[in-house]
Amino acid sequence: MDDSLKNLPTSHLLGSVPAVISEEKEKSTTSYDVPEANMQIFPPNNGGDRGRGYQTLGSPSPGEGFEQQPANNWRGVFSISSYTQYFNVDTDIVLNRLLSALHPIGGDFFAKIDANPDLYGLIWISTTLVFVLASLGNCATYLMQKHTNSGTSWSFNVNYVNVAAGSVYGYAAVVPLAFYFLLQYMGSNPSLVKFWCMWGYSLFIFVLASFLLVIPVEFLRWMIILLTGAASACFVGSNLKSYIEGSDLTIVVVAAFTLQLALAVFIKVWFFP
Prior knowledge:
273 residues, globular, transmembrane helix, 0% strand, membrane, single chain, 10 helices, 56% helix
């Protein structure tokens, strides 16, 4: 091909493409700013009060912010959600605390429950003790009566249930509350939930002792209940002493020790006569 033909213009030919103009190239490469977009939370609200609508992340609704805040006023006392944290225990934790309650001179029970005191033990152990005293108390009177005079008729004493419920629940609730106000009056800073937890677990040993009190031997019954009461009283006294360490409140420890022994004597006299 002749070299002169290479220089002929070709823009008029069929199928030819015009050269890209530099101005259009500059316009095509010009950057533009995209308006800032916010991520949204679905589902949207199409109007009215049918839904919560779009919400920007990081800006919770007023209702959510209110629900996440703990109840810090008197209304929290009547809210069930305020007490759920005191039932957040599993089987291993409860068993560990039950075994600690059987160690009367450890004095470290408050250290074990410091991070998570519970009311589960208080309610469960108290309720178990009520039914155990009512049932085994009747069983013990039956065996004792048959042991002394087999010809005498025996009848189930329903009143044991009422006395057991009133005495056990009353003791487990009122005694820790009384010591809480007493220590506050004396200038200490006690925890009512910890007191309820400790006194609740201190009743566990009476559940075990009740099965031995069924034995129809009066002397053996007194030995069992006195040893049980002393062990429970030592558990309460030693832990209470460690809790108020540094304060001269010996009278408080002696009072707690005496009340625990009095409970043991009451159980023997009323339910296992």
